[in-house]
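Fold this complex.
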Amino acid sequence: METSRDDFVIAIRSAFLKKGTQQRFSLLSLILFSIIFLILGSLNFKAIDYVKIFIREITYRSSFIISAPENFVKNSYILVQNHLNLYNENENNKSELAKLKSKDLVNEFIIMENKRLKEVVDDYLVKSDAVIAKVLSDKGSPFLKSIIINKGSKHQIKLGMAVLDGEYLVGKIVEVNYYSSRVLLLSDLNSKIPVIVEPNEVFSILSGTGQENGIIQYSKKYDDIRNESVIYTSGVGSLFKAGIPIGKINDTIINEEKKVQFFSDFSQLRFVKVFSFIKNESK
Amino acid sequence: MTELKNKNIIRKALSNMPIILLFISVLNNYDFNYLGLKYFSFNFSYILIFYYSLKKSESLGYSYIFVAGLFNDVVVGTPIGLSSLMYLILCVAASYLRNITLRPSLVKDCIFFLVTILIINSLLFLALKFIFNYELNYFDQIINITCTFLLYFLFSNLFDFFEIYFVGNKNAR
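Structure:
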């Protein structure tokens, strides 16, 4: 019994302390080093912050280059898929275009009227100039649904700015480096955005699920939310301007949390627009 | 002379292949999410680190593993230092298994690997959820652990094959 305990201790000690033929550090010293790194990092220690920024800049660029072959395969796969669906999509698009053209004329009038009314109640937010950014990396992991873009503090990117794919909201900036930034996508578990569900004007919170969709949470008026209802930003908190389209309800089962299908496909983002919304001072 | 030089370069590249593969895997973060496979994700780095720490510890330096962990944290978005810690715990487990094993067998390695990744992922889950306040999907973790464990059999044989026929290490098994 005593011997087997000794063997265990020897094996453990050897695993922690013994350096291999080409090892410069023992495992124990590196483990201690990573724990120190973690603790100082969580305490926002200045030197560690600089190391972090340096590692991030290198990693994002290298990741973009190394991901090139996989991205090529991925893009080819999507291209083939798109070609196979082309005919049906074209037929649908034609009929939808005809409907939209007629709606567009009415919308233009409503937008102008809405702008005038918002200016009267001092709630009119204007977009800053768009910063067009290229997506460097879009690695979805079980931990974080995010993308890396090639614009950072050098290009006036700031924390909390809205990121749009065309006219659709895709996320917000959560980390800014000098030449790159990280965008937390709406589908991430940690993403919570104040939204309004139209029609019926239901105010709620859109949360990510870690999957391809989001869910509507913390609302008392679930019964008023119908299938195919459209989700817009509500403008509460003044982080985003009200009325940016996000997605639509895609849930036929009546339950507590309504599923949201995003308008933008987050797995196919190539370029995004980054905006901040500021109050209109030009009165 | 040139032929000899070329052969040396190839031999060097082949013997450093585990390190190259490790860095590619953390920077590229293979996820195959574009295939739309809902219940499929695995951690290639865990398999690679465990296999080479167990079978050929001189191929992967601990310092490289530490740096790869830092890179992985940046790509995935977890607190910097966390993946390094997990990778090094994996190395400790592999090193311990190497010290106590007299007659190696793939099944025993796999079972030990499963226990190790269960512990590592539990630690990771606890640290992210309760210390760093990350929201995590428990089900995704289970799928990741299961697929990583199942794919260890496949990759272990592939690495054996690579070591025997490309690197010329006859004791790989």
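Chain A touches chain B through 56 residues (CB under 8 Å).
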